[in-house]
Every structure is written in C-alpha cells, then in structure tokens.
Design brief:
Structural class: alpha/beta
Mean pLDDT: 96
Strand order of the largest sheet: 9-8-7-18-17-15-13-12
Shape: globular
Low-confidence stretches: none
Radius of gyration: 25 Å
C-alpha cells in the first residue's frame, strides 16, 4: 500500500474519524461528501486524500491544528449529524507552492514541523544546503510521505564553491574587488556577507555544474536545487564581469540597494548557463534562484524557462500596506512581481515573504492574519505560482496566526470563515474579545504611520510608552477571562517583552541606558525560554550592536552596518520629515 495512503488511514483512526477514501483523478483537490451520515473523501492523489483527512478533523472532528506539536480538541465542536451532499467542495488551491523557508538546523521539533505542514496543506520547505546535509533518512521519508518538497538551497555560492577547498587551488573563481581577488571567509562567517564569485569564469561555471550533478547523484531524492548568491553584495569587478554592469545604473531605494549598481544581468547570465547545462543531463530537476536587493527584476531578454523557478524576496517591505497598495516601497515590489510573471515561459514565479520581520526574528508585532488573504488572492490573480515565508517555531505566539492563516489563504479558504474559526478554536466563548485584541494590535502598528518596515527603530521611534502599557492591559483583560489558558499567558508575556524592548530603546535615546541595563533586559528575556514567544539566540545576536554602540559612544540604529543605517536615516526622514 502507498505509504501516504497508509498514513491517511492511520490518521483517521488517530482522530476518531470514519470515512471512505477514494482516488478520483478528475478532481482538482480533495472533496468531502456525506450520505446517510457516512463520509467519503475523494481526491486526485494520496497526498490530497491526507489533506482531506486533516480537513475533516478540523471541520467536523473538533480539532484545531494551530501550533506544531499541540493539537487542540474540543468535543463540543464535533459535528455528528450531517446533511447529505458536499461538505467541502473540491477547489483548486490559489497557490501551487505553499510553504516555509528554514534558516536554522533541523532539530527535535522537526517531526512536529513536518506534521503541522501536512495538517495545514503546506507542500514546500526551502532549507540551507548545509542543514539538508544533516537531515536523517527517516525525516526525509517523513516529509516525502506528507507531500513536502524540500528544496536544498538558500544562499549557496559558498556551498557549490567553498573557499576552504578552492581558495588555494582556484583563486580566480572568487570575485575581484579593487583589483584583488577576495579570499573567501567560508568556514568563519555564517552568511559570507558581500562575498561573491567570478561568475563569468567558464571553468567556475562548469565546476558548479559538475558539483551540482555530483550532489544530485549523492542525494537522488532531491529534485529541486538552487543557485543563489551569498547574502549581500560584493559582485566581481574583473574585466569580463564588468561587461555586465553599468556602474551608473544603481539599484533601488525600496530594495535597499541604491548604494550599489545592479547585478541582474550578470546573475541571470549565470542562471541561464547553469540551467541549460544541468538540464542536458538532468531535465527532471528544477533550478531555483533569487530575485533580491540589486537583482530584483528580470534583466532584458531573460525568461523563466521550464525547470527554472524564481523567488522574489520582498525584503524590507512595508507591513502597514498590503503588497499591492499604493506605497513608496511595496508598489515597486508589485511591479517586479508583474515583470517576473510576464517573463514566464514554462518556468515559475514565486514570492519569498517575511511574515515574521525581514529576517530579524525579534517578535515585534506583525498582524497579517487578515491581510494575507487579500495578498494571496492578488498573487494568484496576477499569475504568481507560490509563496514561502521565513519562520521559526520559538516565536509561534507572536506569528503563529500569520502562518496558520497563510496556509488557509493559500488553499483558497474564505477569510472571515477561517479567521472566525481560528479565534473560536483558540479562545472559545472569548473569540470576539480576542479578535478585538488583535485589532487593537493592528491599530497600534498603523499608529506608527502609513508606512512601517518592521525593524526596531521604525516602530519604537514612532510610538509611545503608554501605548505599550495599554497593550499589556488589553492582553491581561483577555487573560482574565481564562486565567489558566497558557496561550493567553504567553500573549501577556509577549506584550511585556515588546514593552521592555521599547523601554530599552527609550532609555538609549535619552542617554540613560547602561550595559547593565542591556544585560538585565536579556536576562529577563531568558525567562521566556521554551514558551514560543521570542527566538532567544536571534535576540542574542542582535544586542551586541547596541552594546558596541554604548561602549564606543557611537550612534546605535540597527546592526551598526553603515549602509543599513543610512537607509534607516532615509526612511525616518521619509516617514517623519525629520533628519535622524
């Protein structure tokens, strides 16, 4: 028996459900029907049958799959009497590719993640290649049985051409900057920020293809790989590479790349070459690549051919506007999306989202659970094939509603029905009060101004301390309705964390913050460990910039990176009309 079908049948028993499972190739997705109180789940394949089982559990069985590793069950919500006919009609998902981007190693919670993804009908996980290398065969099988495609990719120039191997043997493979070949810091730096390759070098290109084919032979289950630059900038300036640049044609303010020249032409020339060579021997493999910072838009003449997929990263997007609204940031990303869809020629155009704060994982408020439905509908209407978002399990209190509703939206569910059921499942009779709390949190974000990019300075500099105390008060009022509810307790702790972060920021602005104050804040945050409120290692990697500024007497805005700080200054002036 097919292992996915076997899992579907065992999940029926696990959730105390009864249904006949039927394969019907004519359907676009699963459907659930009833006759004489007997239920049939029909679907075009076994994965959709599995999805149908989970839909039945949530729709009629009294279950809610809000959080990985924590199924909720309310027997009062179980439906036992059904009218004959379609209970859930078949409908084609709005997005073909629906999933997550994982920037952390696989761990003991990975089975919970794979389980949750299947329960919420997500089918794609993009991971760093170095982390995929650590994934056990058992977990690979667990993902495959649940219909989850794992893309081995992310920023990976240094994976295909590691400095520890090629620095000495082929220094010409690495970017030339100011007349000198760089020495790759591979093995020292996590992201190799602004370290690239000499991408026009034919020997380098052929070496990448050779390494890709060897990788695919060693990992026969992998059908999707990537060619993505190391994070940042630093493109090669040798004579051949320089033919692909116009150094007067700079990047764009909205994609934080106005300080460097565009790199789209040179990057896309590499992608085109590698895809052609790879597909000569492995036409079954999909090659993905990024559209990001100074290579956001398709270069002239470049097309998305069959077997090639792009992921456009909406980096430093405004969260107070939807992606398609009139906004000095988002409207440019919407234009880029249309351009990528316009060059599809058998390939796919996808979105790389940040429903958790543009890579900072700091658990600052981001309330997208309603907006996501409108954005996903816009993406679908405009020819986008898929959406992935970065995520982390330890901040589920802060962003779980975003992820949960993203999964519903991507399948084409009704916004009000899905959001309403979520609040009822999580808060029971207090659903209206919970909805009001999240609405207040959304209003708080909008109070920062029409536009808001979710780094700390953007939020904390344009909101007031009493607003945070009001949010704590509202969270405590919600908790008072059910004092023993762990999720409500975590919401209160989340609001207290955000308020303390704001106080830290204000103390710094007023010249009152000390190193001891930063230590005390971090120590308090440590009490939240294990509660899925904030990703503590990410916070720990953020605070050194603040400590360095205090020690050195320099101005702290963000990570103490000059070009980033300059964009924050420009944003501040654009939002407030004042110099920073």
């Amino acid at each position: 028996m097919n292992e996915t079908l076997r899992l579907a049948q065992s999940e029926l028993k696990k959730y105390n459900l009864s249904a006949e499972l039927v394969i019907r190739k004519d359907l676009p997705s699963f459907e659930i029907s009833a006759k004489d109180n007997a239920i049939t789940i029909a679907a075009p394949d076994e994965v959709e049958l599995l999805y149908g089982v989970y839909e039945l559990a949530e729709r009629l069985g009294g279950y809610c799959f809000f959080e990985p590793g924590n199924d909720r069950f309310d027997p009062a919500r179980k439906v036992t009497e059904l009218a004959d006919g379609l209970v859930v009609p078949a409908r084609r998902p709005l997005l073909e590719t629906r999933g997550f981007i994982q920037e952390f190693p696989f761990n003991d919670e990975t089975p919970q993640l794979f389980d949750w993804m299947a329960k919420n009908k997500l089918n794609y996980l993009q991971v760093w290649m170095k982390y995929y290398d650590e994934l056990s065969p058992e977990l690979k099988t667990m993902a495959q049985v649940r219909g989850i495609v794992i893309e081995s990719g992310h920023h990976n120039f240094n994976y295909w051409i590691p400095g520890r191997k090629y620095n000495k043997t082929n220094p010409e493979f690495f970017a030339e900057i100011n007349g000198q070949r760089i020495v790759s810091s591979d093995g020292k730096a996590e992201l190799l920020l602004s370290e690239q390759l000499c991408t026009t070098n034919k020997a380098l290109r052929d070496e990448i293809v050779k390494n890709m084919l060897a990788y695919l032979d060693a990992n026969p289950e992998v059908k999707t790989i990537a060619i993505n630059p190391n994070d940042g900038f630093g493109w090669c300036e040798c004579k051949e590479c320089s033919k692909f640049y116009d150094k007067n044609d700079m990047g764009d303010f909205y994609s934080v790349s106005a300080h460097v020249y565009r790199a789209g032409r040179i990057y896309h020339d590499l992608v085109k070459y590698l895809a052609a060579k790879l597909h000569e021997k492995r036409p079954d493999v999909t090659l993905t690549f990024y559209a990001y910072v100074n290579y956001c838009a398709p270069s002239p003449g470049f097309t998305l051919e069959k077997g090639i997929s792009v992921f456009l990263a909406t980096y430093w997007r405004c969260i107070n506007h939807k992606i398609f609204e009139d906004c000095p940031i988002n409207s440019h990303y919407a234009d880029d999306i249309r351009k990528w869809v316009g060059v599809k020629h058998g390939g796919k155009a996808n979105i790389y989202e940040y429903y958790m704060g543009i890579n900072f994982y700091l658990s600052l408020p981001m309330v997208h659970h309603r907006d996501i439905f409108e954005e996903v509908k816009w993406y679908s209407d405009n020819g986008v094939d898929g959406v992935l978002t970065q995520f982390h399990l330890p901040h589920w209190t802060a962003y779980g509603a975003n992820y949960y509703m993203f999964a519903k939206a991507a399948r084409g569910e009704n916004q009000e029905a899905a959001v309403g059921k979520m609040f009822c499942d999580l808060f029971g009779n207090d659903a209206t009060a919970a909805d009001a709390f999240y609405a207040a949190l959304k209003s708080f974000l909008l109070s920062a101004g029409e536009c808001h990019i979710p780094y700390p300075h953007s939020l904390f500099s344009r909101t007031t301390a009493p607003q945070y105390q009001d949010l704590i008060k509202k969270a405590k009022a919600l908790l008072a309705l059910a004092p023993k509810d762990p999720f409500r307790q975590n919401i209160v702790a989340w609001m207290e964390y955000v308020a303390r972060f704001k106080q830290l920021f204000d103390d710094y602005q007023e010249g009152k913050l000390t190193l001891e104050g930063v230590d005390a804040f971090e120590k308090w945050c440590g009490t939240l460990d294990g509660r899925r409120i904030v990703v503590l290692p990410r916070l720990a990697s953020y605070l050194p910039a603040l400590r360095d500024a205090l020690k050195n007497g320099t101005r702290w805005l963000h990570f103490n990176i000059d070009w980033e700080d300059e964009y924050i200054r420009q944003h501040h002036k654009m939002w407030t009309g004042k110099e920073l």
